[in-house]
Amino acid sequence: MSTGNHPWGRVADDGTVYVRTAEGERVVGIWQAGSPDEALEFFTRRYDSLATEVNLLERRISTTDLAPGQAKATIARLHAAIEEAKCIGDLDGLKRRLEALSERADHRREEHKAARDRARAEAIEVKEGIVAEAEQIAAEATHWKSGGERLKQLLDDWKAAPHGDRQAEAALWKRMSSARTTFAKRRKVYFAALEEEREEVKERKQQLVAEAEALSTSTDWAATAAAYRDLMASWKEAGRADRATEDELWKRFRTAQSTFFDARSAAMSAKDSQLRERAGAKEDLLAEAERLLPVTDAKTARSALRSIHQRWDKVGSVAKEAQERLEGGLRRVDEAVRKAEDIEWRRSNPEALSRARDTVDQIRKTINQLEGQLSQATERGDEAACQRARSAIATRQSWLTEAEKTLADLTG
After folding, report:
1. In the chain, what are the domain boundaries?
2. What pTM was computed for the model?
3. Average pLDDT, consecutive stretches of 10 residues, N- to C-terminus, the chain (412 residues)
4. What gap in Å lies between CA 98 and CA 328, rounded to an integer?
5. CA-CA distance, 360 to 381, in Å (whole number)?
6. Any idea what DSSP says for residue 84?
């Protein structure tokens, strides 16, 4: 065997393949299946794969937010891979590039630490702003509903904000809790002074009950339901009367509301029954469509399916939860008929059939030729040629199987 040379490696007479490094030559494999040039090409491709991984890591570190720990782990893995690599190429150059990437990863780790420190400081600033606003609301607010909603939002903002220094955050949380407590006490005192206004609340709620009772026999379902929602909102905003009056008015309000919504439910149930009947009709049509499967006569199946579609459209809409299932089942039958039509068309297409037969004949001819080559190589005792011939025959046998299947589909 003649030797082969490469800037970063060589193939010895006995087929041993070496790579050149700064520490000297290292054996990376044995090659006996072809020429030295083929060996060099094979082991160079292995190097190219390794170099591609280094290139990709360089791009990720340069253009993405790759975590420093992940980068260091990948660098270590690639270092180990280079040390044991069975390939030919500038392995020392790859090591130098990885060392440079390692320095960049260390630098990025320091940057991340600094960013975390800045984030903690910024978190404390954010929470200081939240606490300052909460303390202002606790001391000055007179709009209790909006003030309470804003305090709730500030509490949600606190929970959503990132964490800062633990000691500073604990002190801020103590101030936040104190502000919420102060607000709650002031609001309680305020509402205690509203007792004298309860008569006005009673009059307002009597009016709401009268409106609710007037609407209880309405059949304008959507508009009346919206009106009841508005009445309920007004009820909640009106305040509270004394307990006995509140209970009596609330019972009348709920009775009127229940009368309307019970009637609406009965009407909706009737509609649901109609939708179920339609769904049953479509179930029957779907069963009729599914009996067309498997399709043996595409033209007849298409005609029958067209009739089913016409009757399907006449049935009308069904409940949403049944619609997707029914429509999906009919679509599957449609698809099966379309596939059957495609197969019939391909079977009637002489060009497709001719191409399929030509392909099968050509592959069989090639296999016969390769079997002759295998026989000759066996007689010569050329094991390498025998191996190549067997591999080629196996490949073309798999091609032949697929080609014969296609031909069978077109002629079956």
Report:
1. 4-89, 117-193, 196-253, 271-346, 350-411
2. 0.31
3. 72 92 92 88 94 92 82 90 92 93 82 70 85 88 88 90 84 89 88 77 86 86 88 87 86 86 78 80 88 87 90 86 86 89 74 81 90 90 87 86 80 66
4. 55
5. 31
6. T
